[in-house]
Specification:
With 291 residues, the protein is α/β, with parallel strands linked by helices. The chain is built from ten helices and eleven strands. It has two domains: 31-114, Leucine Dehydrogenase, chain A, domain 1 (Rossmann fold); 140-263, Rossmann fold. Helix content is 41%, strand content 14%.
Length: 291
């Protein structure tokens, strides 16, 4: 028996429709939400992804400004651009797209994105707020996993959830979000030892390590719900996840596909985060509480 598929496209459409409705309401109030995407690379796949964000934003009624600084941009130029965008009232959301030029430190740059415009949860302050349960934008990919869990009514309260990968983009913020849902969370990484020692007994396994085929059917049980966050490009240009789809599909209870799973939800959430940020900034300006 094959695992039940957990596709993300229908959920992504629902989120896009919510973002579109929000953008329409804001437009009727005289404000068009605006997203700025800062790019500093000549990587073709990155530019393809940025164009897909731009198309999705325009479709939702959100203005999308692509700030292409080229692959030779210096760290100081990027800092200046991010600081200027953070101070610009017409910009509501900011994304710093990776990869960045050699020698440019992403950890140094993300601190220059204003937290209220940090719609992809890149600023360390956003992660800190998330850790203590204060309002903040979580990284969109981590939030997308939670949206998938809610959409498919996957119970996590009191359940064992294993997150494979400890990145600041997915693993760590996702663990915090799951703890807010009363899950019992284990985060596995390269020093954790045999993966099956943790994943085989888990109710939910989220694999987000960036290693194709890392999770196999030997790592899961017939009650495992597997959410695959991996997006790995194969030599032929196709995408694959971190789970070995064939072997996991033959054992697990449910499995999200790659592509067509978490990734499609992530892009939609960036749009929704932009409209939420626009609404909150508009309210803050009226009340005088925006820094």
């Amino acid at each position: 028996m094959n695992a039940t598929p957990l596709p993300g496209k229908a959920l992504a459409k629902l989120i896009q429709e919510k973002a579109r409705a929000d953008a329409k309401d804001l437009g009727e109030a005289g404000q068009r939400p605006t997203l700025a995407v800062v790019v500093a690379t000549d990587d073709g796949s990155t530019h393809w992804y940025v164009r897909s964000i731009e198309r999705a934003a325009e479709s939702a009624g959100i203005a999308c400004r692509i700030v292409d600084l080229g692959p030779d941009a210096t760290e100081q130029v990027l800092i200046t651009v991010l600081s200027d965008l953070s101070a610009e009232p017409s910009v509501n959301g900011i994304i710093l797209q990776t990869p960045l030029p050699p020698g440019v430190r992403v950890d140094e740059l993300v601190g220059h994105i204003a937290p209220e415009k940090d719609i992809d949860g890149a600023n360390p302050l956003s992660l800190g707020l998330l850790a203590v349960g204060r309002p903040a934008f979580a990284p969109a990919t981590a939030r997308a996993v939670i949206e998938m869990i809610d959409h498919f009514e996957i119970p996590v309260a009191g359940r064992s959830v294993v997150v494979v990968g400890r990145s600041a983009v997915v693993g760590k913020p996702l663990a915090l979000l799951l703890l807010q849902r009363d899950a019992t969370v284990t985060v596995c990484h390269s020093r954790s030892g045999p993966l099956e020692n943790y994943t085989k007994a888990a109710d939910v396994v989220v694999v987000a390590a960036g290693r194709p085929g890392l999770l196999t059917g030997d790592h899961v049980s017939n009650r495992s719900v597997v959410i695959d966050v991996g997006t790995n490009v194969l030599p032929d240009g196709s995408l694959t996840g971190d789970a070995d789809e064939t072997s996991v599909n033959a054992v697990a209870a449910a499995l999200s596909p790659v592509p067509g799973g978490v990734g499609s939800v992530t892009t939609s959430l960036l749009l929704l985060h932009t409209t939420i940020a626009a609404r909150e900034q508009s309210h803050a300006l009226v009340t005088g509480s925006l820094r």
